[in-house]
Every structure is written in structure tokens, then in C-alpha cells.
Amino acid sequence: MRKVLRHSFLLVLFLAALLSPLAAQARSGPEGFADLAEKLLPAVVNISTTQTITQKDPFQAFEFPFPEGSPFEDFFRDFKEHRGRLLPQGEGDIPLRKHKTNALGSGFIIDPAGYIVTNQHVIQDAEEITVILQDNTNLPATVVGSDKKTDLAVLKVESKKTLPALTFGDSDKARVGDWILAIGNPFGLGGTVTAGILSARARDINSGPYDDYLQTDAPINRGNSGGPMFNMNGEVIGVNTAIYSPSGGSIGIGFAIPASMAKNVIDQLKATGATKRGWIGVRIQSVTPEIAESLGLGAPRGALVSGITQDGPAAKANIAIGDIIVTYDGKPVSEMHRLPRYVADTEIGRAVPLGVIRKGKEVALTITIAKLNAEDEEKEETLLSNAPPPSQQADRVEALGIEVTPMTEALRRKFKISKEAGGVVIIRAPASSLAAESGLQIGDVISEAGQKDVKTAKELSAITQEAKEAGKPILLLVDRQGEMRFIAIKFEKKK
Predict the structure, then answer these.
(1) Domain with 334 in it: what CATH number?
(2) Confidence of residue 158 (pLDDT cuts 50, 70, 90)
């Protein structure tokens, strides 16, 4: 009997030892957030902004079609004249009405001296900004600096008492599934605490060139913009910025600027009121599965260089169109949109090692980071005309289902083709064609096919037909109104 009990005891100890790692991994959630919320709430503020809106007076702009001789005709004329004497006149004889409108958002204190972080869109065009503390103290605020690209702004208030301040945590260490806390001012209700988990990382929501958002299911609504996202240590790991919602309310998809990005921008705004970003002078695009296959890259990764600024850092570093940047300063460029953020955060004038894949081979380069100027940030986008030039002689490229023609000055003017562009111009691309389905358009200039220069329709036809017969994808270099891009055409393999 003692032997059996001894064996049973040993079995229990063995099972306990075996299951203890699993028990450690399957940690339960926190018992509550009350202590953490009580500590953090005083440093989160509500932000109220005021701006003046000017509108035309609808009563003066609208004419009532009364029958001639109607008693209402004289009444309405007198009514209009009376309002015209009371309201300021705008253009013509239609008065302009001015009224003030208020908007609400959130923010948080980062310095006891009165520095506050919020979103740029919360204070955009504001004439007056008021910061409301948790104890309902109202403090007028001034804008120290704002950055539209990352949607961040820094405000300053003067307070007779020392203000509580929050600290930033390391958002790069936050893992999907971690508990997070959000505090803000949803719908103007005042300080509100919500909880959830980190749902995803590195989200690109097409709001700007540096998209790298944290996603959460913690309820975030209108008015939460600019508020902090906390980890369970009470550190700010994100700035709540956007929601995805057809109704305007929370459906469990909210986005926050990660602290790893926000802190650098905030430090610059606080110090100088402006930001300085790195620039290397390239246009890049994503590496799609088709592009990766056509280049023999394997899994899609990196940033594909589709254009280079003349005399820019990339040109001086001997980066070539068609290079795929796969590492930057020792960090992998897993996706295209990571490269702009890496570059933007790099100190101006620093020499940075790059790893690129060029025609299937890895090449090590070094590039010196320059400063991004305002003219480099703004890019105008124009639409192409889909109408082919009349009486234009064209040659058909059977493999792609399009018609192309040699470059002419008339085509340059019509499709706004740059002087540097060379190749053949697409003048017909039926919607059902393989080329159109792959993204090619009328007015595009094909300058390379399969990394070979293309100068005539005959050359393009031969290269694409060879790829089609082999059932292999082919990569085209296309100039679209001065913007270079790669487009991969995938042919079906013959059975």
C-alpha cells in the first residue's frame, strides 16, 4: 500500500512539473483595471477647440416662387430686406453668416511643465484651444508644433500647480494578444476608460506614408482621438488616432500611432516646433507575389525601387531602378511601407548600410541620408485620358492584348510623358486584356520587359511571347506621367 501511494505521489509530482510551463503560459487576465485607471486618469485631458465657420445665408439665397400679386410676395420681400440690414454682406447681394463651432478630442500630459500630446486633426484650423483637466480646470493652450504626416501635435498650457505626466513605453515589445487600456473623451462625455487587447501590429490604413499602426479591440469612438493607449505597466505605447466604422461608433477596430514612432516626432516638435525627416530620393513600390516570382525572389519582401531622383542620395549611392531594398541599417525590410519609416527616423547626414537584391544577386551599398524638404513631400496626382490619339498607327502585342506605338512629341503632350521616358506607348488596352487586368493603362510607356530595354513593338512582342510560351511571369517597367513603376504580368502555364 505504501508503495502504491509512493508511486501515486511521484506521478502527481511528474504531472505538476510537466504542466507547470503550460500553466505559466496560460496566464489569466488581470482581476481589474481600477488601480491602474486611478493612477493614469489625472494625466489624460479633454481638448475643446473653437473655430469660425462662414456660410451663405440660406434665406437670402433661396427664392420662393409666389404668384404675381400674392400677399405673401410683399411680406417675403420685407423679410429679406430686414435680414439684409442685420447681416454682413458677402459676395454679390447674398449675406454671409458667421458662427462658431466646437470640436472635442483627447490628449495626455507628457511633461509637468505643461506639454500635452494630441492628434494634429484635433486642433487643425482651431482659433481657440482649451485643455480640460480631470478636476474640470480649464486652461488655454497654444500649439508648440504639429506634424500632418504622422497626425501628431504638441500643445503647451500654463498651470499654477504641478501637472501629472505620463511616460512612454516600448511599443516594439508589445505583442499581439497583450492587454491594453485606452483613456479618452468619447462623444464629449469626459474621461472614459476602456480595455481590450492588442489585435494586430504594423497596420497600413492608407492614411499617410508612415502608416505603421497598432490595432486594438478596446472601444474607441469619436472624441478618443489623441488619447493614450497603455500597457499594463501604465506606460503609453500608442496614441489613439483612427477607427474603422461604417456607423461612426466602435465596432472593435481602432488604430493607434505606436510610441516608437510618436516619441521621435514629439521630441522634435517639443524642441523646435517642427520635424526633420530623412530622405534618400527613391520611389518605391510593394513586391507582389507575381513580381517576386518574376525576379526569382521567392517569398515577397523588400521595397522595389521604381524611380530615382537625379543627384539625390540614392543616385549618389549607385542604387538602380529594379533594385529591391531588403535590409536598412541592419534591419529587415519585410514590407515596402517599413522603409519610409526607417528612413524618416534616421539622423540627417548619417551613412547607412543597405542590402539590395539586383538581378538575383545580393549587393551591399552605403547611402548618406539627406533632409526631406517640403517640395519632396507633396506629389500631385493627375488622371490619364483613356481616349487613344486619332489616326495613330499601332502595332499589336498579342501576348498582352494591347496595341502600342513608338514615342512621338504629340504623345508626350497628350499623355504628359516626361522627356526622359523612352520605349513604346500603349494607345489601346481593352478592359478584358491581360495587360489591363494587371494594371496597365492607355498612356503608359513600357521601357523594359524582363529587365531588357524595349524600343519597338517587335522587341516587346518577342519578349512577352517567349514568357507566355514558357508559362513564366514577366516584369515590365512602366512610366506613367513621370512616375516609374513595375508591373508583373502572369501568364497561365500550358497544361
Answers:
(1) 2.30.42.10
(2) very high
